[in-house]
Write a sequence for this structure.
């Protein structure tokens, strides 16, 4: 069935992390590995795989001309009905963008193909610039407080109109499952990486954590407005104390979870340091021995330094680096980095020295055969 999914966000000149974010976003959504079509009106388009092309340059220029606290663009991502044809989906996106810019603002949309095993995951990334392309005046008011609700409502209306025109019975519904009378639990957004893992038939740790969190009985959050009674001052004080105590419990639980997460990460960091040190010890001796006897070397005489052994140690080093990289975010402790850096630098040097010690297999193959142990 058709799925209702609308995500709205904004890029502001004063709130973006770095200048040119809007142009970089266009570059990303028009990448050749995902986009199948790019539509645009009243602004330059971007060819697929062109890193944003003329559209990116134009947005950078518009951003420079905007006031310092102005909104550069509004970003919208929508799920496209898989019941429609490619042409019908393109028409739907165009009609919706024209409505959200009143036919006077600039917009660009990149339509993405389904990825993985789900052939229904058609979606579009839309960039809306809420300024008249001739006068520069605001045309719709997408920075207003109620603009997100307007976008969500209009997408529902346009998508259902397109489904009806195509003779499809499916419809999308922006209401919550509870308002629709549905008893099933809403899904959780876990991202493309987790989805890819599960499509391979593997279990994702993120999914396990989400399921566990949902299975726990969570108390209904208390709101201050629910606890205060204007006609009973004593009750007000009592309930306010209860609300404050509840907030303190939440903060204490959050702090405990943070401490447990740090403890878990520190345990993993100590494991990596230990394994890296042990790997360096296992590699250092054979490499130094081989370098001392380099003029008489013969790979058949060196069990630890044959190509398979070297390959295994390189793989082991790569896995250690990947695990270490995962623990770098959000911020790795300086003390851990100070311990880890010299060990990894030593390992990197040992890996390079090992590779240089291996004979060229094509050039040395006959010599190795001649010098191999006699059976």
């Amino acid at each position: 069935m058709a799925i209702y999914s609308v995500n709205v966000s904004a890029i502001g000149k004063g709130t973006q992390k770095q200048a040119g974010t809007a142009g970089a976003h266009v570059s990303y959504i028009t990448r050749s590995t995902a986009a199948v079509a790019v539509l645009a009106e009243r602004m330059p388009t971007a060819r697929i795989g062109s890193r944003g092309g003329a559209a990116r340059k134009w947005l950078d220029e518009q951003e420079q001309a905007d006031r310092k606290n102005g909104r550069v663009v509004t970003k919208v991502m929508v799920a496209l009905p898989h019941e429609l044809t490619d042409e019908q989906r393109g028409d739907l996106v165009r009609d919706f963008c024209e409505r959200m810019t009143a036919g006077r603002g600039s917009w660009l949309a990149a339509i993405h193909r389904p990825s993985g095993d789900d052939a229904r995951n058609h979606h579009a990334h839309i960039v809306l610039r809420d300024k008249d392309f001739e006068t520069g005046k605001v045309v719709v008011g997408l920075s207003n407080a109620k603009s997100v609700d307007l976008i969500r409502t209009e997408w529902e209306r346009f998508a259902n109109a397109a489904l009806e025109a195509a003779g499809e019975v499916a419809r999308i519904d922006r209401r919550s499952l509870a308002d629709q009378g549905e008893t099933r639990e809403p899904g959780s957004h876990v991202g493309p990486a987790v989805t890819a893992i599960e499509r391979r038939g593997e279990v994702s740790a993120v999914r396990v954590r989400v399921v566990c969190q949902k299975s726990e009985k969570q108390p209904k959050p208390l709101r201050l407005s629910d606890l205060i009674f204007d006609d009973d001052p004593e009750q007000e004080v009592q309930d306010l104390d209860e609300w404050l105590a509840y907030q303190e419990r939440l903060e204490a639980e959050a702090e405990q979870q943070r401490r447990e997460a740090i403890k878990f990460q520190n345990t993993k960091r100590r494991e990596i340091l230990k394994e890296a040190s042990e790997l360096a010890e296992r590699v250092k001796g054979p490499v130094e021995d081989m370098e001392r006897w380099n003029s008489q070397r013969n790979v058949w005489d060196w069990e630890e330094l044959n190509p398979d052994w070297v390959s295994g140690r390189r793989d082991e080093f790569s896995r250690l680096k990947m695990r270490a990289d995962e623990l770098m975010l959000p911020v790795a402790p300086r003390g851990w980095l100070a311990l880890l850096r010299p060990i990894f630098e030593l390992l990197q040097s040992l890996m390079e020295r090992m590779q240089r010690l291996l004979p060229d297999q094509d050039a040395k193959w006959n010599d190795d055969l001649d010098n191999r142990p006699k059976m």
